[in-house]
């Protein structure tokens, strides 16, 4: 009888741990989804990995960031920031191409707003988790070179300086900052969350990303 009670107690403890971990995963996953929904990334791809093409990429970056205030100023959400981007895609292309022409480069530039799969990336003191994010992409020439990225909304790009323009503490929730500043702690948990959502999508045919606006 004592042996049986011991098994019940052990099973109860295991169940408690499972439920606790599930709740923790759910909470982290929801914060992760909210983080991705609220972020618009800037992604600039160089023509090639040659030293000159990489240098030109950074010159384009500087010019695009100088436009950031006039394009994104006053945006109060990622959706609003996207609307402003859509209205200025040609302007961004022209500014980038003008910059290249002044430097003797004839490569074309394409500006697009799309959902992009990013690996884990570190910027300043934050690490953006791997996943699908909305991004403004500027592709120089064949766009086969190494890329440069930052968070365009909320505004973490400082024009022409490649540093944080504001404190991340003011732009993200406490829980999201934990994810951004302690990537090792959350890496496995976020991977499990993404796999869980992918399995759910496969089993139900429902696209969580489209439903939640990511």
State the gist of this model.
The chain is an alpha+beta fold. 54% of the residues lie in helices and 18% in strands. The protein has a 4-stranded mixed sheet with strand order 2-5-1-6. Strands 3-4 form a two-stranded antiparallel sheet.
Task: Record the strand order, biggest sheet.
Answer: 2-5-1-6
In terms of per-residue confidence, which ranges show pLDDT below 50 for 5 or more consecutive residues? 5-20, 159-165, 210-214
Largest sheet: 4 strands, mixed
Look at the structure and give the mean pLDDT: 81
Enumerate how many helices there are, as a single number: 8
Give the overall shape.
Answer: elongated
How much strand? 15-25%
Number of strands: 6
End-to-end Cα distance:
54 Å
Category by helix and strand content: alpha+beta
- State the helicity in percent bands: 40-55%
Radius of gyration: 22 Å
Taken in chain order, the helices and strands follow as: HEHHHHEEEEEHHH
Task: Supply database-style keywords.
two-stranded antiparallel sheet, 214 residues, 4-stranded mixed sheet, alpha+beta, 18% strand
């Amino acid at each position: 009888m004592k042996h049986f009670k011991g098994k019940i107690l052990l099973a109860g403890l295991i169940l408690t741990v499972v439920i606790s971990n599930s709740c923790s995963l759910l909470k982290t996953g929801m914060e992760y989804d909210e983080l991705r929904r609220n972020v618009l990334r800037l992604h600039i791809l160089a023509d090639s990995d040659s030293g000159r093409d990489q240098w030109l990429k950074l010159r384009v970056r500087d010019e695009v960031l100088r436009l950031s205030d006039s394009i994104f100023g006053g945006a109060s959400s990622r959706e609003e920031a996207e609307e402003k981007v859509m209205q200025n895609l040609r302007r961004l292309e022209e500014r980038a191409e003008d910059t290249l022409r002044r430097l003797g480069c004839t490569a074309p530039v394409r500006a697009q707003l799309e959902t992009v799969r990013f690996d884990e990336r570190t910027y300043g003191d934050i690490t953006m988790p791997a996943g699908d994010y909305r991004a403004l992409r500027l592709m120089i020439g064949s766009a086969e070179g190494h890329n440069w990225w930052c968070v365009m909304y909320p505004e973490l790009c400082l024009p022409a300086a490649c540093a944080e323009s504001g404190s991340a503490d003011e732009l993200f929730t406490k829980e999201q900052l934990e994810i951004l500043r302690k990537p090792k702690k959350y890496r496995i948990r976020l991977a499990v969350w993404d796999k869980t959502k992918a399995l759910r999508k496969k089993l139900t045919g429902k696209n969580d990303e489209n439903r939640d606006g990511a």
